[in-house]
Amino acid sequence: MIFFLLNALLFVVVLGLSFSVDRKTVSEKNNTAIVNLIITLSVLFLLMALTIGLCLWGPKELSKLIAKVTFMFMGWYCVAASLYVAEFPKKKNKSKTIVSLIQVALDILALYMIFVIPDGFNAVTITSGGYFQIVSGKVIPSGIRYVTKFNITWFELYSFIFCFIIPGIASIMLLVKAEHEKSKLECQKMLLTAFGVAASWFLFLYISRAYIYQPMVRSLIMFCFLPEIAFFVLGFTVEEMWSRRGVVRAVARYSIRYALPALLGGLAFVYFWPLHNDYPSLFLIIFLFCSSVITLVWYYVDRFMQKRDLLRDNFYASAFEEDLSQINYDGESQSVTETTFELFKKYLDCSSMKIVINTEGDEWETVYSSDGSKLEVKPNSLVFDTLVGMNHPVVFREWASHSQAVSNIRAFMLEILNASNSDAFIMLNEGRQIIGMILLGKKNSGNIYSEYDYETFNKLYSNFFVIGYYVKNIMNEALIGTVNREIRMSDQIITSIQENMDVINNPKADVGYLMVPAHNIGGEFVDMIRLNNTRYIFIIGALSGKGIAASMSMVILKSIIRTFLTETTDFKQLVEKVNNFIRESLPKGTFFAGTFGLIDFSTDTLYYINCGAPALFLYTRAYNNVIEIQGAGRILGFVEDIGSLIKVRKVKLAEGDMLLACTDGIIESRSLRGEMFGKSRIQSTFMENAGYPASKMAQFTYDTLKHFLSTEVEDDITLFVVKYHGGT
Length: 728
Fold this sequence. Notes:
The protein has 728 residues and is an alpha+beta fold. Helix content is 53%, strand content 15%. Strands 4-3-7-6-5 form a 5-stranded antiparallel beta sheet, with helices on both faces. A 5-stranded antiparallel beta sheet has the order 8-17-16-13-14. It has a 5-stranded antiparallel beta sheet with strand order 9-10-11-12-15. Helix 8 (244-272) runs antiparallel to helix 10 and helix 19 (485-499) packs parallel to helix 20 (547-565). The longest helix is centred in the middle third of the chain and has 29 residues, at 244-272.
């Protein structure tokens, strides 16, 4: 019964594995062959379970038929697996017809040996004594002298041909190809695939030997193909060279996390087992106590090893992100670039790193180089225009060399990589403006940059942008001089924000704004973006956090909004894209609270989306009153799918109407007595200064706040004012 259940269970597990492999390799070419092999193996387990079940509970003739079908399919699987090995890693279209003919011929041979040869395959039975027997006639009649001692059955010959001879020939062909393969990674893939066949042989021989001690174990014959499939999948999906250090780490991880605790638990079980007969409750208590102690000790040992980077695996994204976010931008300028290179070397085994920036007049300057060399080649602008259009800022040599999508710029990309002795570069762009590149040298292990590396780089792109922005605008000693570094950085960031703004310039409206960071640097901002002569977008809000990190995130968000506007014309979809970017690309825990607005002067209409804005005031001359119009809103960065939670609202604007938006800093500021400035004071100040231009209204509101506080402002203050004149 247990052997029936094992085969049935393996059918479900292997079938699930086929779906998993298919999802993970959907982008790979020729992934159909490996998926089909896994599905075929799952069918073998199902057929074997049916065979055992019919032997136990079904009619003999039916069990014999299903058994024949099962072992015929086993031969067909071995043929398909052997051809997969022989053709690995790529199929050649020229030999496709020949391979198909060979496969058909071998499949017919399997069918002939199982179904046609007289006395070749008689039955599969399970005796009352628990023996799993495959009844098959001898290849040479027993009456012939001298050969009886070495005679074998037809089924043994069948197994030898299809499980050993044919896979062996295919493995030899693969090993010969591996000897002439120039790529170390491809050679490793071939060796892993060939090793899968050897592992299958080893298990086959082991089961044959174990049959002497446990006669039912032969019903697990399909288990022999599990290590083969495992190594086939590994050889197909592995994207990096295995180093001695990596193998030692993998063995150490497995030993410390699984093998060692399991061994200690097993020893404890064996040692205290004698208590079970007389004191079963005491045995259970002692064993549970020992298991808890082992688990607790294992947990702290594992944490200790992880902190010392002794058990780090190849999935480094989370640790890399954490270390990047802890870079100290307030320290010495050189330490930032040095730390960045050390992190790339630690997690990706990079041999070198260069940072080049785009200076005035499209000139390129190497501002950091770990090996002291400089990039002498001037990058072609066509490269960056194409990559920006593709939204593909991360480029690896393998992709640049083989992707048809970049055939027109391939030569230029390879020129950059060759000139800098690099295998990858990360393009740093602010909208369509390129501020620089981070170039990464070859990996010391000889590995190529993998698909996992690409996904990680894209995920951490905002961190790399911060480094590039810092190098371009902050690290320059000519700017810093002897002035306090933090103030310089604040001035640089705030100036950049103001200069890159498309201030609304339309006779129908007067627009003013004010941004005052409480501690030189902050995450609040106002932005205005011109869509055409009559339509402008404005954003006012605050990103969570303080200091440099918040400022850098603000700059990145400001840039990405402009990029998104080149991809979408839908106002609500723009906000959804921004929400996803904050969740996926900015440091964990970052969120945005504010307002997205769109003014259409051709229709005198304001469209706006409340994204957690603390206050949005509208004065209408028709009612001579100030009202709050923000309604319910959702902060960006928390919810994955925010589309159903935000709404586009619309207000018709008329001559004399005024709009004021602000962040929570001015509302929640408190005087020495603990009294909050509040919304009512903002409204009254708004009306008192209505006769002044918009910029003066913003300034006077801030002056009123300072007078109210009678002390330093403790929070960032941002105000945005629109006075609508109307007309034509």
